[in-house]
Structure formats: structure tokens, C-alpha cells
Amino acid sequence: MGRKWNNIKEKKASKDANTSRIYAKFGREIYVAAKQGEPDPESNQALRVVLERAKTYNVPRAIIDRAIEKAKGGAEENYDELRYEGFGPNGSMVIVDALTNNVNRTASDVRAAFGKNGGNMGVSGSVAYMFDATAVIGVEGKSGDEVLELLMEADVDARDILEEEDAAIVYADPEQFHAVQEAFKTAGVTEFSVAEIIMLAQNDVELPEDAQAQFEKMIDALEELDDVQQVYHNVDLGE
């Protein structure tokens, strides 16, 4: 499962280069999560997950507070949560999650991003069955054995624990997201290199060099769309 972490690192590095767009997307996602429940992360689990992920992308506190205050103020911006599934070059698989106030616009934009880069949209369910919702939590400065021990002491189950460079990465069921974090916090860990619930491909595929270049162009086009929040895929992007 080690290549999965490479994909996440690649995604974070790409997003670091587009901070204003990323901050805007987080602002929208935080607002929607806060509107759907209490605007308090202690009682709103969806909001808490978004805020934990926002920390790993260094989203400024002002943007987080503004989105939550907007939700508290009763703003009437309405967004639909959409999921698109499709295929890239050589049968690679892609999942696109979006928040939009114009479904027709978003569908058209996503379809164009696929079509112009050697891909095509599929029907609902054509790709998602090859992915699993997974909590991914990473910490630096601890070994896999240390992480296993502290999770066992907290009676928390994990699917897998990997050591990648200077970090230990925990893969767990989504329901274990907060339990894993609390186990780390009890052990004195306060910073996470990654803290997300993602759609994780059951198997990665490798593409020939020309196809991978085209695939990466397609992923960039999808992630650059304002309405798109997350893009998941099953291609090993390497180091």
C-alpha cells in the first residue's frame, strides 16, 4: 500500500502551488459541513474531519473562522454534493467529488476535462466499487512499531501501518478516524502530516510514460475546476 502515500503526497504538493484556490475550496467545504449540522466540530463530526484536513494544508484560521461564522449567520448559499466517475488513459480510474451551486455547469466542466485529456465519464458505480473509503493519518518521527503499540494500548484497530521516509502512515476504517487521532494525541502527538478520509484504490496501476503525462494533465484539469473538491485515482504516480 506504500504507493498510495506517494499519490497523497503528489496531491498535497500540487495543491501547495495553488493556495488561493485551495483555500477557497476549503472555505466552501467548511461552510457546507457547518450548515449541515451544528457549527461546532465537537458535535459535528463531518465538520471536525474537514477542519483536521484543513490543518494539514495550513489553511489560515481566518478562512476557517469566516466560513463557520457565515454558516452561523444563516447564509443561504446552497450547494449540491456530487460524485462523478470516469476513466483516463489505458483504463485508469478516477473519482471526482464536487460541491456546486450549478449542477449543469459542473457536469459540463468535468466531462470536458475528461474528454479533452483522453478520458471519458462513466455512469454512477462504474468506478467506485474499485475504491474503499479509508481514513489516512500520518505522523512524523514515530516508527511503525511505536504507532502499532500506541494504537493497541488505545484499543484502536487499523487496516495497515506503513513507514514512509520519516513518517508512519495509518490506514483505517473511516469510523476509526477520530479514535486514531485521539490515540496519537494521548501519546503527545499534536501535528499530523496527513489527516483525511479518502477514496483509496484497491489496486494501483502503472502507466507508460506518454499515458502518464496525459493522465496527469487530466487530473490537473479536474483539480483546477472551482467546483471540484477532491479527485481520487488508481494510478501510481511514483516519487
Automatic annotation (TrEMBL):
<keyword id="KW-0804">Transcription</keyword>
<dbReference type="InterPro" id="IPR026562">
    <property type="entry name" value="Transcrip_reg_TACO1_YeeN"/>
</dbReference>
<dbReference type="GO" id="GO:0003677">
    <property type="term" value="F:DNA binding"/>
</dbReference>
<dbReference type="Pfam" id="PF01709">
    <property type="entry name" value="Transcrip_reg"/>
</dbReference>
<dbReference type="GO" id="GO:0006355">
    <property type="term" value="P:regulation of DNA-templated transcription"/>
</dbReference>
<dbReference type="InterPro" id="IPR002876">
    <property type="entry name" value="Transcrip_reg_TACO1-like"/>
</dbReference>
<dbReference type="Pfam" id="PF20772">
    <property type="entry name" value="TACO1_YebC_N"/>
</dbReference>
<keyword id="KW-0805">Transcription regulation</keyword>
<feature type="domain" description="TACO1/YebC-like N-terminal">
    <location>
        <begin position="3"/>
        <end position="74"/>
    </location>
</feature>
<dbReference type="InterPro" id="IPR049083">
    <property type="entry name" value="TACO1_YebC_N"/>
</dbReference>
<feature type="domain" description="TACO1/YebC-like second and third">
    <location>
        <begin position="79"/>
        <end position="235"/>
    </location>
</feature>
<dbReference type="InterPro" id="IPR029072">
    <property type="entry name" value="YebC-like"/>
</dbReference>
<dbReference type="InterPro" id="IPR017856">
    <property type="entry name" value="Integrase-like_N"/>
</dbReference>
<keyword id="KW-0238">DNA-binding</keyword>
<protein>
    <recommendedName>
        <fullName>Probable transcriptional regulatory protein AMD01_21800</fullName>
    </recommendedName>
</protein>
<dbReference type="InterPro" id="IPR048300">
    <property type="entry name" value="TACO1_YebC-like_2nd/3rd_dom"/>
</dbReference>
<keyword id="KW-0963">Cytoplasm</keyword>
<comment type="similarity">
    <text>Belongs to the TACO1 family. YeeN subfamily.</text>
</comment>
<dbReference type="InterPro" id="IPR026564">
    <property type="entry name" value="Transcrip_reg_TACO1-like_dom3"/>
</dbReference>
<dbReference type="GO" id="GO:0005829">
    <property type="term" value="C:cytosol"/>
</dbReference>
